[in-house]
Amino acid sequence: MSEFRVPAAAVAAAVALSLATPAQAAVTITNFTVTGPVVSGTFALAFDDSTSAYSLSALNLTLAGSSVAFDTSNSGLISLADIGRPDFLEIGGLANGGVYNIGQAGVIPADDFAFEFVPTIISQSAGLSYDTNGIINQANSVTITAVPEPSTWAMMLIGFGAIGWQLRRRKRSTSTFAQGGFNHAL
Questions:
Q1: Nearest Cα to 97, choosing from 74, 67, 130?
Q2: Mean pLDDT across the chain, nearest whole number?
Q3: Distance (Å, rounded) from C-alpha 98 to C-alpha 93?
Q4: Residue 5 pLDDT > 50
C-alpha cells in the first residue's frame, strides 16, 4: 500500500483559504505636489473602491501675493462628470469662506483659485484660474505630480534587491573554443 503525503504548504494554503474573510473596500490615498509661478503646495486625494469616488483628504496651497493659506477648510473637490468630463476633477478654494462649488454665482472674491486635473495621470500640466484683487488670471504652467507612498518605494526596493540577488547567485556560463567548433561549458 502506497503512502500519500500532503505537503505542508498545501495544508497551510487550504487552512488560509478556509479562514479567508470577504474582501473589504480599500481607500487609497495619493499625495500630489503643485508647482507653478503663482501657486505651490501639496494635496492628497482619497479614492474609495466601494463607491469609486474621490475625496480631498489634505490640502496646503498658497498663491503668490496672497495672505490666505488654502486648506481643506476653505477649499473643495468636485467631479466634472456632470458637465461631460468624467475623468476630470477640480480643486478650488474660497478665501472668504463658503463652500466651493462649480458655477458659483456672482463675482469671485479676491484670492480664490481653481484648477482641473485627471487624478490617474502621474504628472501633468493643468490650467489654473485665480483671482487677485478682482482680476481673474489664467496660468497654464501649473504642474501636478503624484508622489509615491513610502510602501510603494519599499516594495520597489525589495523587488530590485531580489532581482539583484537572483542575478548574483545564478551560475555564470562561460564559452570556450575547442578544436572542432564552439563548446559551452556550464
A1: 74
A2: 75
A3: 9
A4: yes
pLDDT tens digits, 117-164: 898 888 888 888 877 666 666 665 788 888 877 777 788 889 888 898
Dist. CA 117–CA 90, nearest whole Å: 6
SS (H, E, C) the chain: CCCCCCCHHHHHHHHHHHCCCCCCCCEEEEEEEEECCCEEEEEEEEEECCCCEEEEEEEEEEECCCCCEECCCCEEEEECHHHCCCCCEEEEECCCCCCCCCCCCCCCCCCCEEEEECCCCCEEEEEEEEEECCEEEEEEEEEEEEECCHHHHHHHHHHHHHHHHHHHHCCCCEEEEECCEEEEEC
| Residue at grid coordinates 480664490 | 112
**Longest pairwise C-alpha distance within the chain:** 92
CB 168 within 8 A of CB 145: no
CB 138 within 8 A of CB 37: no
Is the model's pLDDT at 106 over the cut of 50?
A: no
**9: which 3 cell numbers?**
504548504
Q: Are 125 and 145 in contact (CB under 8 A)?
A: no
